[in-house]
Amino acid sequence: MSSEEKMKPALLSLVGINPLSGKSVLVTRLCPPKGWTGRLCEVDVNSSRIVGLSQSGCVCVWELGEGGTSRTMEAPEDEDWQLVRWGEGDTLVIGHQNGDVSLRSYSVGRQAEARTDTKTLLL
User: Fold this and answer.
1) How far is residue 119's CA from residue 73's CA, in Å, rounded to a whole number?
2) CB of 51 within 8 A of CB of 64?
3) Where does the record place a coiled coil (predicted)?
4) Which of 4, 39, 72, 81 has the fewest CB atoms lying closer than 10 Å?
5) Radius of gyration of the chain, Cα coordinates, nearest whole angstrom
6) Which helix (H) or strand (E) holds 92?
7) Among 86, 46, 85, CA closest to 65
């Protein structure tokens, strides 16, 4: 890790720990992508990918197997994203302030822009 990378603020640090010896090593630091504002408030893991949601509604997916590269998705102006989780396979489940749930397909190397399905939660 270069001295420049050490100076960047990290949203999340991934640490590997040997349970027998108690020794640990820093595996990677997930730094905020350009355009990220606010604190990290939601995180979920699927295989070698981590998805996070900022207070401002920005969703970011970090690809751990590709050197920690990141891809972001901004909430459309009329939507207020409050929750993000990995669904089955490569589906991102995004919860909205009004109770709607969006399912978005995500594939390695690119993100899908089109919403594939929307459902309303009934309480």
Assistant:
1) 20
2) no
3) none
4) 4
5) 16
6) strand 91-96
7) 46
| Amino acid at residue number 26 | L
Nearest to 27 by CA among 53, 60, 66, 1: 1
Identity of residue 85: R
Among residues 30, 31, 27, which one has the least CA distance to residue 15?
27
Q: Is the pLDDT of residue 67 over 70?
A: no
Reading the block at residue 36, the tokens are 């990220």
Q: Which residues pair with 82 in a beta bridge?
A: none
Reported pTM: 0.71
User: How much is the average pLDDT of 5-18?
Assistant: 81
For CA atoms 61, 76, 104, 100, the dihedral sign is: positive
Residues in the chain: 123
Any idea of the CA torsion for 23, 49, 2, 12, to the nearest 10 degrees? -70
Taking Cα atoms as reference points, which of 46, 63, 57 lies closest to residue 81? 57
pLDDT digits (tens, 9 = 90+) for 21-50: 999 999 888 888 887 888 888 899 988 888
Q: Which two tokens stand for residue 13?
A: 């640090």
